[in-house]
Every structure is written in C-alpha cells, then in structure tokens.
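Hi P.,

Sorry for the delay on this. The queue was packed all week, but I finally got your sequence through. Input first:
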Amino acid sequence: MNDESLPCTDLSLFEKEVLFHHPDVALPKNLSDHWLDLIGRDLDVLIGDREPEYDMSLHRGGPVSLVMRLLAGKKGTNSIKIELEKLQTYLIELQVEINLELINRRTDVRTSGATLKTIFENRQVSVSMPSDFKIRK
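Then the structure:
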C-alpha cells in the first residue's frame, strides 16, 4: 500500500475495533492491514523517521493508546501508570514490532510475532528465510 494515501487515524474507530476488545487484538500480528499501516505511519512520525502528514497531535493518539492497551493487558488491569521516558522506549519497541509484522505480511521472510507475554520484554526474534534465499557476496 502506498502510505502517502493513508488517511488520518480515526481514534474513535480504533477504540471500537481494537482498544475495546481483548488485549490480544492489539498485538501487531492481530491488527488489520489498515491499522498496521496507520499505526506504523504514526510511529514513524512520532519517532522522527518521517514528516507529519497532519497536525502532529493527530499522529500521537493511536500509538500511545495501543502501547497503553498492551501494557494494561499484560498486567491484567484497565489502569496503569508509566513514566514518560519508559513510554518513549515502548513506542520505539512497538515500531520494531510493527515493522516485523509488515515483513511477515509483505515478504517471504517470517519472523516470530510478539505475544502479550513477550511484547516489551526485550524478546528474541526468530527469523526464517525462504528456502531459495541466497546471500549475495
């Protein structure tokens, strides 16, 4: 998908389709392509890897609410407290997880997806290359 054509992230729809469900729904491997693309774009903007398409505040809500939902799900609660510095770290880790899932969906390379137990835990990622993959020298 050409991410230049992505609409602004609709937080009310994101709540309805992702955040108000079981926390497993919020894992990158379970997000629809639509939400994966939007959250990936918004994370790239927040982290400074690309210019904002909209007002900067419109790129924050989706990624931050997704991190909070995943953390609350890990703890089995609906309420959490987090230091801002740690939130920034989790946003970067979420960006990596989103990119791993994009690799899974758009290439023949397979990576292990995070679970509620392993996300934000400095997990090891397994990578499987196609059998006809050759390393160029």
